[in-house]
Amino acid sequence: MTRFFCLLVTILSLFTAPLNAQIPPLERLEPTFWWTGMHNPNLQLIVHGNRIAGRTVKINYPGVKISAVNKVENANYLFIDLHIAPSAKPGNFVITFTRPGQKDLTYTYLLKARNKAANRIQGVTAKDLIYLLMPDRFANGDPANDVNLQMREKGLHRDSMYSRHGGDIQGIINHLDYLKDLGVTAIWPTPEIENDEPAASYHGYAVTDHYKIDPRYGTNELYRQFVAACHAKGLKVIKDLVHNHVGTEHYFIQDMPMKSWVHQWPAYTNSNFRDMAVMDPHASATDKKVMLNGWFDRRMADLNQNNVYVQNYLTQNHIWWVEYAGIDGFRLDTYPYNDGAYMAKWAKDVTAEFPRLSIFGETLVWSAANQAFFLQGDKVGRGMDTHLPGVTDGVLKDAIFEALNGKEGWTDGVNRLYAVLAQDFLYQHPNRNVVFLDNHDMSRLLSVVNEDITKYRSALALLLTLRGIPQLYYGDEILMKNYSAPDGLVREDFPGGWRGDKDNKFLASGRNKPENEAFNYLRTLANYRKNTTALQTGKLTQFIPRNGIYVFFRYDSLKKIMVIYNGADKEQELDTAYYQEQIQGATEAKDIISGKTTGLKKIKIAAKATLVLELIIPKPAN
To answer: Transmembrane ranges (predicted)?
Structure first.
């Protein structure tokens, strides 16, 4: 055993009696309920209770059979393997835990019928526009749940960026019409499940209960109502998952089933955060181990995904949430830090149950090849198919900002954007990548472009016209700004989301003139995109930048869109003769923002500005 685990055992041995005394005889059983008719007929229950391993397990229900009862190192756990036959009917059955001379323990387990409603799980595609928000910072719809004295972090301090602010699921529900009007079609909240850590637990990435919505956000039933309300308004829902780690206050970290439940080290060891070690054919084994098995933070225990019990727990939980709530997609946090073989199996198992479910992984890496390494299809020689359909395209994000802020060079400035898109051959389906400009972990769009409104508008125009699934970050539409360091101000509250806020930016009357101009610009583009298949699934043809001007076309059988970005520091006039292979005789186009018709022969474009033009294709003569 490692020194770390020896120390842990020593500490726990001092408190074994009190710890066991605090655990009820049957503390919990998960998944809390299940469904008949699943693709995989096998289910593994995790049971936690005071010395529960000393009991015999019995079930008597047609179609449900105990395949195995697994005892592990910690006598407070049992892992029960069930086989649920296709013939099993929905209903209740009793799981009995017996021990000679003691009273039986019972758990009434519910098998539900699967929800087979058509189009219930829709998937998120390049037809969508994702809106990322942090529930704690978006809107407070129910002040009654702001403080929960049963939780470790009891305070509510809106003046601190690292405390809870009181936003919740009801707050999101209250503003669905605002999002729909903006042109959003899919909502991605950061994790809503319980984070009962003593401090800074608002972000959601240190889960302490996988089967429970954090009570400061609402209830499981309210979350399900939220998904239903979104679907009723034509909005999809993405659930944010964390495979890699959990909060250290999680019950199965406080009382671990076995020493191999998490990655153990002789002394606390951070990940080196170097994804290259995973793909480098010359990498040292030590570097790779530290990358994958090192912890993210002292309060985030790194799960051992080589442990089959951990695998089953995570996979079943994620399947449970889809079937329970009917969500449309998963975003996978910190994807490169997970075990590749397990994640490939996870993707196959989840999509076997829900073929239309969408999945994309967070891969904040530095090159297109690094991103492609983690994607399905093994186009870069990983030696395995990850079955991961898409990633967060941070490389394209960086290229957009280089085009906006960089100086012209062979592969710099606007040429970087061209060069990155030229590497789309690395991806099996580049349209499944999520394209973004900022998020909760990085500086906001407006600040990155030094509050230059022309660059801001160009960034949004490129985001909404390039290939892939575009993603906005809450508040970008109203010119929210700030940098990720040192104060975390990129996670400020949305103004107007709280009763008593001085300004309500959800309303046009609460926004100033520049904010309304930004909002209306984005809304115009977003709603145009929502109704234009050429910008969703159409082909993309790009031209090598000339004199700092980058031109590309998106087109299908219905429409052709010409996008022109002037990356130079001065106004230029574009002679469109070079682009006739795509213009093909069109002489006029409609400016999507102004709605005006403009000629195509010579086009003036301001420095750092972008034009989005719908070509007016002459109708053939009869």
So the answer is: none
Residue 621: pLDDT band (50, 70, 90) is: low
Each domain of the chain, given as residue ranges in start order, spans 3-113, 130-253+310-532, 539-616
By annotation, the residues acting in catalysis are 333, 362
What pLDDT sits at residue 5? 34
- Cα(460)–Cα(446) distance, rounded to whole angstroms? 11
Adjacent-strand bridge partners of 94: 108
Indicate the pTM of the whole model: 0.96
CB atoms within 10 A of CB 216: 26
Spatial separation of the C-alpha atoms in residues 414 and 432, rounded to whole Å: 23
- Between CA 616 and CA 587 the distance in angstroms is 7
pLDDT at residue 378 in the model = 80
Say which DSSP state 73 is in: S
All residues at 6 or more sequence positions from 309 whose CB lies less than 8 Å from its CB, including other chains: 44, 46, 70, 72, 79, 257, 258, 261
Helices (H), 111-237: 135-138, 169-173, 176-182, 220-232
- Looking at domain 539-616, which CATH architecture does it have? Sandwich (2.60)
Please provide the CATH number assigned to the domain covering 3-113.
2.60.40.10
Note the pLDDT of residue 9: 36
Q: Output the CA angle 70-74-77, nearest 5 degrees.
A: 50
Stretch 96-124: mean pLDDT: 96
More confident call, 622 vs 139: 139
Q: Each residue of 511-562: pLDDT tens digit? A: 999 999 999 999 999 999 999 999 999 999 999 999 999 999 999 999 999 9
Question: What are the structure tokens assigned to 464, written together?
Answer: 């909404």
Homologous superfamily of 130-253+310-532: Glycosidases (3.20.20.80)
Residues with Cβ within 8 Å of residue 507, at least 6 apart in sequence: 496
C-alpha closest to that of 75 among 49, 106, 56 = 49
Please give the distance of CA 196 from its chain centroid, rounded to a whole number.
Answer: 21
| C-alpha dihedral (565, 567, 570, 571), degrees to nearest 10 | -10
What's the pLDDT score for residue 4? Answer: 35
Q: Of 524, 510, 437, which is closest to residue 476 (Cα–Cα)?
A: 437
Q: Which SS3 state, helix, strand or coil, does residue 436 take?
A: strand
Q: What residues have CB less than 8 Å from 377, skipping those under 6 apart?
A: 385, 427, 428
Burial class of residue 56 (count of CB atoms within 10 Å of its CB; 0-12, 13-18, 19+) = exposed
Listed in sequence order, the DSSP H helices in 95-207 are: 135-138, 169-173, 176-182
What residue ranges in 114-190 does DSSP mark as E strands?
130-133, 186-189
- pLDDT of 7 over the 60 cut: no
**Which pair of structure tokens corresponds to residue 538?**
């159409």
Q: What is the mean pLDDT of residues 568-590?
A: 96
